[in-house]
Amino acid sequence: MRIERREEVSVAVLILAPFGAVLGALVLCAGLIAMAGVSPWVAYGEMLRGAFGSRLAVTETLTRASPLILTGLAAAVAFRARLWNIGGEGQFYMGALAAAALGHSAVVGLPLPAAWAVIAGGAMAAGAVLLLIPALLRLRFGVDEVVTTLLLNFVALLFVGLMVEGVLKDPMAFGWPQSVPVAAGLRLPDLVPRSRLHVGLVLAVVVAGILWLVQARTVFGAETRAAGLNPGAAAFAGVPITATLAKVAILSGGLAGLAGAIEVLGPVGYVTTTMSPGFGYAGIVVAMLAALHPAGVVAASVFVATVFVGADAMSRATGVPSFIADVIMAVALLAMLVALLFATYRVRT
User: Fold this and answer.
1) Which of 30, 90, 137, 303 could share a disulfide with 156, CB 3.0–4.6 Å?
2) Cα 24 from chain centroid?
3) What's the predicted TM-score (pTM) here?
4) Helices marked H in the chain — which ranges?
5) Hey, where are the domains in the chain?
6) 107-159 per-position pLDDT tens digit
7) d(CA 314, CA 51)
């Protein structure tokens, strides 16, 4: 037997692969739920009810999906060019810290659109720098960016802890380790009254649409696809690999930093070292479930948010530990990798 690449992969297969992976993950995890003494039908029903069963549940699910869209896009755009960005969590925190620092006093007095633009630009620059360093190390010295981006997550988190305990510490927080808050007038407006859902969701969806157009209709998009499919052939055809990967690093890190900014300007208002439940790492799962497509990232983000928000309600109603959400995500990622393997390759005898 041998494994050979398929000459042509059906679009329908690529679309159905994520649904098959999600269904497979739910079926496999149903056994774990049954071992806890609860019917999987009841548990999954409570999960859906917890994510969409009320106005509050729906808004909380969409609020959780907003930063996931951007961190998912950050991973997708990097992975498409074979730049393995595992540092979305650190880039998220650096963007959040930059947004809090700028939004507290630096942009106060500017017109609101200009202030938002400055904060978003600063957050994207902070995230981009954190990924550009590993990218340049790979391009110049061949250093594995998987290791460097992963380890920089811890460096970034420690730096954030240093800032919120030091120069950016909120003197009105009664000793609680949090940064100074952004000015009240700079907070993003709510999409739904009396909820945490804010216009950052609209911004994230618009960014996904723009990124799809860039990848599908521009020279830069073609260069990133070529660099990801075959760097040697792309270089031979005249694609500037070094410049392309540097641009991809700036874009990917910037998107993760923007996710941190909208979380600070939206539901949180300040930075703590525990403000992210793993948005950067979950963005990798989102990108893979979406098959690295920007439109799929939006749908995959809603699914991941549904699992995490619904798992809390399911745990309260049935007693199944909410950690089942992490298991579902891990199994879904593995199932997606297997689905993509058999969608792209076939076994011949």
Assistant:
1) 90
2) 23
3) 0.93
4) 11-35, 40-52, 55-80, 88-101, 112-141, 145-164, 200-217, 219-229, 231-236, 241-263, 279-289, 294-318, 324-344
5) 2-348
6) 777 898 999 999 999 999 999 999 999 999 999 999 999 999 999 999 999 99
7) 10
